[in-house]
Amino acid sequence: MPDYFNQTTIRTHLLSVVVDHLMKGGITCAYTHQLGCELVALLSAYREEERHLFPEVYVIAATEGDPLRIIAPGVTPLSIGKIEIDKDFEAGAREAARAILKNCASLAIDGWAIYIHRDQDGFSYGLFYSSPQSYSVGAAAVLVNSSLPAVILRNSAENTVEIANSTGMRLEISLTTATPSNRSMSSQIMEFAQAACQDVPGDDREQASAYLNRLLTDFLRASHGALLAVAPITASLESEHFSGGVVFDVPVPLVTLMLSAVKEQSATAESMLRSHESLLRGMIMSDGITVLGADGSMRAFRVLVNIGGEKADKGKIKAGGARTRAFDVLKRYLNEPFTAILFRSQDGRTNLEIKT
Asked: How many domains does the chain have?
């Protein structure tokens, strides 16, 4: 009896969409296209020693000069190694992607990112510090407005990878059966950050929202889902509809600390700012709702919204149905007390509601 066998993978379709996006970012090298495809597959759920890692990877085409100096001016990269091009593009790219992540991913934390630079013989790769100061705009923001032949790849949710090219175009690739989002995670987080800085004085508002956007993007990428809300400082959070959580008597002035660090340019101010950023990261990783003020402050965390007269999931809003139901309930309070609410699920779905 004949042995009928057929196997299919997502590789052909994945390579097609990756090539299209990299081409639009000025990367025309076929080997780099193969490498990009392999990086997407690996970054979607990259783990080492049972730890889920979230490295940012900057892929830079061969070009005159050193684009990395434009993306991260004043930064000295840490060279890790070189990889020669294999004649077998597919197998060679797979081994190259694995080797680069194996050598670099565990170090690409706390502001460090991976760079991969196409050169004459193959690829040189290593690490660089993508945000020399916590309040700086960051290499990712520079890249997407640079028109350089480069892209950034990063995990944006479970089994989901975002590719941003230098023309500002963003592509999210979800290796799941989830329904595609109508809007990118990045654009929704940006709008939420703008709402959370609405009461920052006009001259500082753009810098404040860009800073908060970068922080929230980093923190939400590594979270297992989150609920965030914005409430003006004058709005009361004391309500029969909310329970539990920690509401600060005096909001923690995160954006104010950032603006002070910009002016002071001191190690002490920078250290103080980073310590408060860690607080925000911890709040977002906690159960419940994290509430920001419209002046970029931190007002509350672990806040629970009552669903059907009872606390959501016995005091904890967890990934899945409870968080989704909580978000639906939060919409009732969009005009009072909240001016913006953001939902982020573990599988990458993002939903933003803004006060009209």
From this structure: 2
